[in-house]
Amino acid sequence: MVNMVNTRAKVNRKMQCPGPLPRRKMRRILMARLIIQIYEVQTAREAEALAAMGVDHIGSVVLSAAGWKMPGLREAIAAVRAAGALSSLIPLFGDPEPIRRTLDYYRPDIVHFCDALPLGSDARPYCEQLIERQIRVKEEFPDTAIMRSIPIAAPGAADRVPTLEYGRWFQPATDFFLTDTLMLGTSGAAASDQPVSGFVGITGKTCDWNMARRLVQNSRIPVILAGGISPGNASDAIAETRPAGIDSCTLTNACDADGRPIRFRKDLGKVQHLVEAVRRAEKFLQ
After folding, report:
1. 251-284 pLDDT, tens digit each
2. Of the residues 54, 82, 228, 274, which has the fewest C-beta atoms closer than 10 A?
3. d(CA 70, CA 67)
4. Both ends of the chain: CA-CA distance in Å?
5. Ranges assigned E (strand) in 119-190
6. Cα(227)–Cα(151) distance, rounded to whole angstroms?
7. Domains parsed from the chain with CATH numbers
8. Closest residue by Cα to residue 206 from 224, 184, 233
9. How many angstroms separate the CA atoms of 278 and 6, rounded?
10. Residue 128: which H helix or E strand, with range?
11. Which pTM does this prediction carry?
12. Which of 269, 275, 277 is nearest to 233 (CA)?
């Protein structure tokens, strides 16, 4: 059981602002252009192709604590580094020791936590446990930036999710926020209702952009917009929310014969069109 008083004290004492990133990374993060982040890239070949297109953050996923050690994935992360982009890694598990082993083995630039967060009275205590985990990760891996997914409901339902409260709680222990769409049922948002049980993301559905814009405006750290981002809507999404960057996964995937997205296989043409759309949108913002 986590001591909540001690957790709050640690946050207040040690994490009044995000821990400083190394100068090399900070220069690359605080660039003039918008960040383009693409998930789920699991091979060196795809990583090299995306970096050559100008993708800034290339994200990968470790699917389980049992199968955490994948030499091919480590090669992909090394390829990202060699190409001058930043690697981001999602561990789809929460136990501290497997996370520590995973980060020590892969050494990503960014570790991305995307736990599904509760909506009710137990939200704050649960989030404090996750904040404690982030603090411990930062203490052991000070050169690794921390990204936290902040759930936002679909358009028209944003008031059912305490998005801005999540932002206030997590901001002191986080380097990046990523918005993502939370699937809601009639009785709330069960962790099992998400495409990956217990985690938020890969819905292919847009979140409420008005709430995303409010999160951007209320945050002192970069906010990357995700949730149903495609080459066709990236420009509008940027104009509406003014994020630090955009993220795409499902809608830049290759599709099967029935038009269903295929996980872990990118459509390089879609990615190229997305990059072009974002760079055009930058000119509008300037």
Report:
1. 999 999 999 999 999 999 999 999 999 999 998 8
2. 82
3. 7
4. 49
5. 145-153, 176-182
6. 10
7. 34-285 (3.20.20.70)
8. 233
9. 43
10. helix 123-140
11. 0.87
12. 277
